[in-house]
Structure formats: C-alpha cells, structure tokens
Write a structure and sequence with these properties.
Layout: H1 2-18, H2 27-56, H3 60-63, H4 69-77, H5 81-93, H6 98-105, H7 111-123, H8 128-137, H9 140-154, H10 158-167, E1 170-175, E2 181-186, H11 189-212, H12 219-234, E3 248-253, H13 254-259, E4 262-265, E5 268-271, H14 272-281, E6 286-292, E7 295-301, H15 309-317, E8 334-337, E9 352-355, H16 357-369, H17 383-396
Parallel strand pairs: 3-6
Antiparallel strand pairs: 1-2, 3-4, 4-5, 6-7, 8-9
This protein binds zinc ion.
The site of zinc ion (ZN) has 8 residues, from α16.
C-alpha cells in the first residue's frame, strides 16, 4: 500500500535522527545530512498540501475536537488558521491545476508559493504554467507581485473590487502587553498612493539623518521614525522635509483605459475609472504612462519637475524593482550603467538598469575586478579622491526618486 511507504519513511527518518551521536556528525556529514533534510522537508510540505484536502473530507478533525478542518490543520502543523485555510483551498483546487500539483509532488513549490500560484491560476487558468516557472526564478515578493497582476487582469469588475476594499477599510491601533502602540490598516491603492507619497520625504530625511550620524538602522526602524516625524509635522510641531511628496506612477494600458479594465498605481491594481478621474483632474504629483501592450506610448507628467522620460521609462520597463535575477527589492533603487559611464557608456534607456544598493555594489565590484584598466583597490585613499569618486558616482548612478 502507498500509505505503508509514508509510514516506513517516517520511521526511517526517526531512526536516522536518533542515530546522530550527541557530539554531532563530521562537518561534511552534517552538510550532506542538511541537504537531504531540506529536500525531505520540501517534499513533505508539498505532499502535505496534496493530501490535506482529501484528509479533511474524512471528518476526522471533528473527532479531534476542532471547529473546522482549517482549525484542526493549524493546530496540528503549528501555523495560523489563515495559512491552514490557504493550504486547504490550494489542495481542493489541485484537480484543476495539474502543473501546481506536479510541482508540489516533486518539492519544487513550497506551500506558500503554491498558495499564491494556485490562487492566481484560479482567477486565470492560462497563467498556471507561467506562474509555476516564475516561482523558480524569483523570490516570494516577486512571485506575489506577478500573481497580483494576473488576478487584477482577470478581475471581471475592478470597480466592484475597489469599492469592496473601500467599504472594508480600517485603521486599527492599540497597546500590546508591553504597552507599545501597534497597528494595522487596509485602504484602497489610490488612498495608499497618497499616504506613501506624503511619507516618502520623511523616510528619506530620517534615512539621511541616520547615515550622517553613523547609525545603521533597519528599514523598518527608519520607517517607524518616519511615521512619527510625519505625525509631528502634521500637528504643526515641525516643518515637512524639503522636496515635497514623491511622484505617483500610474501605468494604464490604452485598451484597459478605454474598456474599463484594470490599471496600475505605483504597482498596485486600480480600476480604469480611477485613472480616468486622475487624468481629468491633473493632480500635481502624478505621472501617467499610457501603454499599448508592452510598449510605452506616452508619458504624461503633471507637477513641478522637468520631464524626465528616460527615468520614468526605466522605472516602468524594470517594473519598479531591482533587475538582478531573483531579486525584487523595491526600496532605494539606483540607476546602473550596463556599460560604465567611465567607459563612455551612454545615459540611455538601453544602457541603464535599476538595481538595489546591494546588487549595485556587487556589480560595481565585479566590473572593477574584470576591468584590465582599473587601478588596484587601495586602502590609502586620500580624502580628495574619495570625495571626487563619491560625487562622480552620485552624478552617474544616482538614487531613483520613485516608488
Ligand atoms: Zn537587488
């Protein structure tokens, strides 16, 4: 029987585990064992999703005293009810999603990846194979972005979705056991774009201040300080940072705009009706980008800044994220010259890409390593040439004022 195979595997794994001596394995042995365990864990997690739906139908969760199959699965696996709900939903859809099932059975999709892919493929079955492939090429955030796009494109009534989000809007806050103020909120993407546009200059100011003081803070800590600074400024306690709100990007497909489909605001789906309102209103900090298929047809800019078509087109082409394969960081993107500026590389769309600070640094280091003309790195850098190089770097590959 098939089940016997699983029972025997579990026993074999327990025996292997108890055979590990208290002092541990040799480093090479531990490394090999770890590789096996990672593969086993992935396989087991995938198979668990495959089995969960069928197992729930036996009703054995009632015998264990649970209120629902979701609650039972959450308790037995030590996860949240929300995550167990995702697992069961995915499991039940697998009959219609053979590619997701195959990827779960061979351990290439994790349960979290499978939940995202299955949910989006449920909205648009044609996207199933592409999303399964995508899961292997990008991180979870990149996969979630792609799944969100598929769902938005398949949404038969984006206006209804937007109204539902608006009707369900909330801002909850309270004190936790330590007395700390905590909170969460959910608002429409267009309202969110307003909030983030106002927030961006505070975040930038706090980040610069921390760097000037030599403090290394996490992104989250900087954002928390920026939130407080924004509240203090709103109450009239301090002036808002110079520069004003950041630009908001609206990407609209011409056909979607005409037929009432879904468009994008700072990467989040919004109904075409909202975009039409914006186009008519001429808001001060909005950039409208009209696309036909994949080609950018027109960049419309409202606001105080000089049109910078190259900058806008670059952000849109690279999807507002780092172009390094597998990375999808969106914060603090920098423009990188494929052929370095110092080697007469032009500042044109074809010679530019967006990179996060980490991958930008990595690429610059590699460029230097493989450059026969480059001076060897020196530890005796003078203040003058360091300052010169810095300003040079900033001029050529400056930070991007984008979302
Ligand atoms: Zn990156």
């Amino acid at each position: 029987m098939v089940v016997d195979g699983f029972v025997a595997s579990e026993r074999a794994l327990r025996e292997a585990g108890s055979a590990v001596p208290p002092a541990g394995l040799s480093p090479a042995g531990a490394d090999q064992a770890l590789s096996c365990l990672i593969a086993i864990e992935k396989l087991a997690a995938g198979l668990r999703v495959v089995m969960a739906g069928q197992a729930a139908r036996t009703g054995s969760w009632r015998i264990r005293g649970a209120r629902s199959p979701e609650e039972d699965l959450a308790k037995r696996t030590g996860t949240s009810v929300g995550k167990a709900d995702d697992t069961l939903k995915t499991s039940k859809r697998l009959k219609q999603q053979p590619k997701v099932e195959a990827a779960l059975r061979d351990g290439t999709l994790s349960d979290t990846q499978a939940a995202a892919v299955s949910d989006a493929a449920h909205a648009d079955p044609r996207a199933e194979a592409r999303l399964v492939d995508k899961a292997g090429q990008t991180d979870l955030r990149g996969l979630n972005d792609e799944c969100r796009k598929v769902k938005a494109a398949a949404d038969p009534d984006p206006d209804a979705t937007n109204r539902r989000i608006h009707n369900e809007r909330f801002f909850r806050h309270g004190h936790d056991v330590d007395g700390a103020l905590t909170g969460s909120f959910r608002i429409t993407p267009q309202a969110g774009a307003d909030v983030l546009a106002a927030f961006a200059p505070f975040r930038e100011a706090i980040f610069k201040q921390a760097r000037a003081e030599g403090r290394r803070e996490s992104f989250e800590a900087i954002d928390a300080d920026a939130l407080v600074a924004m509240a203090v400024a709103a109450a009239g306690g301090s002036a808002a940072p110079a520069g004003g709100p950041k630009d908001v990007y609206v990407v609209a497909d011409l056909q979607a705009l005409r037929d009432g489909g879904s468009c994008e605001m700072d990467g989040a789906p919004v109904p075409a009706s909202i975009v039409r309102e914006i186009l008519e209103g001429g808001d001060a900090f909005l950039i409208g980008v009209l696309k036909h298929g994949v080609d950018v047809q027109k960049v419309v800019r409202w606001g105080r800044y000089v049109p910078a078509e190259v900058r806008d087109a670059l952000l849109i082409r690279d999807g507002f994220r780092c172009s390094y394969p597998g990375c999808s960081q969106k914060a603090r993107l920098q423009r990188d010259h494929l052929q370095p500026y110092s080697k007469n590389g032009p500042t044109s769309l074809t010679n530019l890409q967006l990179l996060c600070p980490f991958h930008h640094k990595l690429k610059t280091a590699r460029d230097r390593l493989f450059d026969p003309d480059a001076a060897p790195p020196t530890t005796h850098e003078t203040t003058e040439n360091r300052a010169e190089r810095r300003t040079g770097d900033r001029r050529r590959d400056g930070p991007v004022r984008g979302p």
